[in-house]
């Protein structure tokens, strides 16, 4: 990864670390819970028994804890670059597995069946770089990546976020995200917008399966 990519990721990490210090992480969880539930419902339909799970950009660990409650979850781990987020996750769930590391630098000890990520990929200047890493190093053959995005071209009201936050963000359309998954190598790529309302777009969900 180049220095510009690292600098951009570090800037986003600092923002989320500050938000965790201010307690904003709890509000983020409530805001995103409905979309995450939709993603988990879809992605868990075809999971085999005793699946393994990674939440990329886990924040305070709320999704990991939700997935751990599933009867057939054998292993669930969260990773986030914001140290305060990980600290909070460990305080709530001392026995859970939460790692503080940049997604672009980290590699799991063993591959998993499902990788979930919410509101993360567009903070990469080159989203293809992290998609390729997740595809190659994180997911078992037959496993799935599913991501949720509220910052995308069709969601007009999100266009100001880059300026509001002061962080470089990658604005792609629904079609461009789908193409990025396909170019990475994912099969059975699907996209849909969840909870779209009049004059307001919902969460863009993109998912694909690793077939090697």
Labels describing this entry:
7-stranded mixed β-sheet; 40% helix; alpha/beta; 212 residues; disordered N terminus
Explained architecture:
It is a single chain. The protein is of the alpha/beta class. It is 40% helix and 24% strand. β4 (112-118), α5 (127-138) and β5 form a beta-alpha-beta unit. The longest helix is centred in the N-terminal third of the chain and has 21 residues, at 24-44. It starts with a helix and ends with a strand.
Radius of gyration: 16 Å
The structural class is alpha/beta
Strand content: 15-25%
SSE pattern: HHEHEHEEHEHHEE
Number of helices: 7
Unreliable spans are 1-8
What is the percent of helical residues?
Answer: 40-55%
Shape: globular
Which strand order spans the largest sheet, edge to edge or round the barrel? 3-2-1-4-5-7-6
Question: What integer is the average pLDDT?
Answer: 90
Biggest sheet, in brief?
7 strands, mixed
Q: Quote the distance from N terminus to C terminus.
A: 25 Å
Strand runs, count: 7
What layout of secondary structure does this protein have?
Layout: H1 3-21, H2 24-44, E1 51-56, H3 62-68, E2 73-80, H4 83-92, E3 97-100, E4 112-118, H5 127-138, E5 139-149, H6 161-165, H7 174-184, E6 187-194, E7 203-209
Parallel strand pairs: 1-2, 1-4, 2-3, 4-5
Antiparallel strand pairs: 5-7, 6-7
Short description:
This protein has 212 residues and is α/β, with parallel strands linked by helices. Helix content is 40%, strand content 24%.
């Amino acid at each position: 990864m180049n220095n510009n990519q690292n600098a951009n990721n570090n800037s986003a990490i600092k923002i989320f670390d500050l938000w965790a210090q201010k307690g904003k992480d709890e509000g983020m969880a409530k805001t995103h819970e409905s979309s995450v539930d939709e993603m988990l419902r879809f992605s868990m339909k075809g999971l085999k028994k005793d699946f393994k799970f990674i939440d990329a950009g886990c924040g305070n660990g709320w999704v990991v804890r939700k997935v751990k409650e599933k009867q057939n979850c054998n292993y669930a781990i969260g990773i986030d670059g914001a140290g305060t987020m990980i600290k909070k996750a460990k305080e709530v769930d001392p026995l859970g597995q939460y790692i503080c590391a940049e997604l672009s630098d980290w590699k799991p000890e063993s591959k998993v069946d499902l990788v979930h990520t919410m509101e993360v990929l567009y903070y990469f200047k080159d989203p293809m770089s992290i998609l390729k890493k997740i595809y190659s190093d994180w997911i078992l053959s037959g496993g799935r990546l599913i991501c949720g995005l509220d910052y995308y071209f069709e969601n007009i009201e999100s266009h100001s976020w880059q300026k509001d936050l002061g962080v470089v963000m990658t604005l792609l359309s629904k079609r461009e995200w789908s193409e990025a998954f396909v170019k990475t190598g994912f099969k059975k790529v699907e996209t849909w917008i969840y909870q779209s309302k009049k004059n307001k777009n919902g969460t863009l969900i993109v998912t694909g399966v690793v077939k090697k």
